[in-house]
Amino acid sequence: MKIWIATVFILLSNTTFANVIKWNEDKINWWSYEKGLQIAEQEKKPILLVFYANWCGASKRYGKVFYDQEVVDLSKKFIMIKVNVNEEEELSLEYGVRYIPMTLFLDSQSNIQTDMRSSSSEHPFNLNEENPKELLRLMKKVQYKLNEIPSKPKVILMND
Question: If you placed Cys at 24, which of 41, 54, 66, 107 could pair as Cys (CB 3.0 to 4.6 Å)?
Answer without folding.
Answer: 66
